[in-house]
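name: query_chain
kind: protein
chains: 1
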Amino acid sequence: MPTVVHVGPISSPGGIQSVIGTLSSNPVENWEVETVESHSIGSYLSKLQAYNSAKNRIEEILNRVKDGVVVHLHAASDYSFLRKLRLAEHAHRLGGKIVFHIHSGNILSWLGRKDRAKKMKQRLKECDATIVCLSERWKELITPFLGKCVVSSNPIDPIHCIDETVERKQNQILLLGRDDEVKGHDFAFEVMREFQKNASDVTLHCTGREQAPDGLSNVIAHGWVSNEEKVRLLQESSLLILPSTYEGQPMVALEALACGTPVLASKTLHSLPNSTFESETGTTESWIDSISDLLGRKIDLRDDLNQHRIESVNSNLLTLYQGLIEPA
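structure:
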């Protein structure tokens, strides 16, 4: 059978890890699947070791498998993009078919510096890469920089679902994300300070931070949680907030909706299902009003998540992969 090799942050927490985990646990029909770790949290040396290990592993797979290999690289921006591009070039030289999957919400800013986009476009063309983006909107935005793209929506792990045995906590809201300025933790804490001043019983549970800010008794910090614990938090919370500065197509929003939990997102984000709510402005007052209005609200998903079901995503990927390994 042909083989797809997913290359990216296999063990580093985050949205790309979730995507690779879902795709590798639910492989495309009649395809073998392998995963290659390309990232390390730590020093420059550890990252270099991870890169070299990924390079050797890809080479080993391409030398071993004779039925056709698609190397599916999952990239963000900055050094992640450059590492994956070098791995793509290496795999191409060894006969692999290349899928270059862009997940970053900051990709346009990164590509827009100097003549970077022109250089990246040429290098991707030279390794005959098929560029994949997350939505039709991202396709419109990325195409002028890198050329033709195809769309593959992020898949939702089937573990994310509505569980009627889990009781919703009426005033519990949730923020899921790594400890990064763009994720909006500090803004969320400002919102919670206002709730506390008003003697509200709204409570925020958040990941990414090991402890709540001093003086905020209405914030519970979880650090990083297991997938099972994340699902439980999504199922029992009444609202997920997403005050991020930018995102590609945030997995946590899709997972929340699959669990029946409403999502309130920054107005700057796009490529989310229509059932997602937006705050009118970026002020704490606007977010407080929106949170208060949405608590207890039930959502009507209609067909919003169909394109994110693993069956739908795999159907699209099967067409893509077969087109790369089968003679024209």
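note: The chain is about 40% helix and 15% strand.
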